[in-house]
Amino acid sequence: MKEIYELYDNIYRAIIPLRGNPLKSINIFIIKDGDEAIVVDTGFNTEEVLEYTKNYINELSLNLKKTKLFITHLHSDHSGLAGFFESNGAEVIMPELDGLLMGDMRKRDGKYWKRIKNFSHIQGLGVDNLDINDHPGYKFRTREAFKYRPVRPGEHIKIADYDFEIIDLCGHTPGMCGLYDKKHSILFGGDHILHKITSNIQFWGFQFKDPLGKYLNNVKKVKDLNIKHLYSSHRDLVLDVNKRCDEIFAHHSKRLDEAYHALDDRPLTPRDVTIRMKWDIRAKGWDDFPDSQKWFAVGEAHAHLEHLRYLEKISYLDKDGDGVLHYFQK
Ligand SMILES: [Zn+2]
Question: Whole domain around residue 101: which residue ranges?
C-alpha cells in the first residue's frame, strides 16, 4: 500500500511506522482545501517520524501557516510533534481536559506521576518495585510545551465540504475527542475503535469515574451514529464499524467475567486479579512480564474492576489498613 494516498474527497492518509512499538504504525489524516488544511494527530517526537512528517507536508504541499493540527488525545504517539507544528505556524487544537492533564505529565515531578506512584501502591504493585523511569508514558512523554486552543465537545471545525463536530470519545483517555461529519458519515476516531486490537482502557484515578463504563457508552454512541467511514489512528481501517463495536462489547464482557471470577474464592488486589487474567503477551508468568507492561495490564484490570464496582457486583476494602485495595464479590 502507498504510504500517502487520497482516501476520500480531499482526505489523505499518511501511514507512519512506529518502530519497536506493538502498535506498528500510526495513521495521520490530512484534510485539504486549497492551501488550508487540518492534520489529525502527529506520531512520536522522534527524528524518524519527523522525516516522514516533512515528507507528507512536501508531497501534499501543505502550508503550515494555514494548517490546523487537531490532537485527538494526549498520548505521545498522537501529540509528540505538536511543538514542531506550532513553531512552524500551525494552530494546535486539542480537547481541554487532555490538554490540562498533559501539561501535568510533561513535568518530571508533575502531580500526574505522583498519582501514578500512588495508583501502583493502592493496586498492590508495591511488591514489584517498579521504576517510573521504565513507564512508557513517562519515557516518551511530550517534553516541549506548546500553545494550543482548548476545545470542547459540541464545537465545530469547518473545511472544504466538511463540517466536523467535535465529539466526546472519552474512555481511552479522560478527554479524547473525535471529529464527526454527519453529511458524509465520517469519523476521525483516534484510538477509540481499532481494527483487530482493542483500545487500552486504564484506571485514571477515582476522580475520573468508571472509565470503562464511559468507554462502552461511547462505543454505543458510535454504533448509533452508523458510521460509514471510520478513520482510526492505528492498523488497517475498520470497514464494518457496527460489527467491530459488537466485537468490542463481547471482548469486554468476557474480560469483566474473568475479572469477576478471579475473585471467586477470596478478595484480591488489582495486581493479583491481573495475574489471574489471561493476557496476549509472550510471558511465562508474572515474573517474566516486562515491567513496562505491568502498569498497563494492572491499570486495565483495575478499570474492569471499577466498572464491576459501578455495576454494584463487587466492592473493595483496605484489608490491612495500608491503603492497598482488595476487591471482593458482593
Ligand atoms: Zn492512545
Answer: 4-329
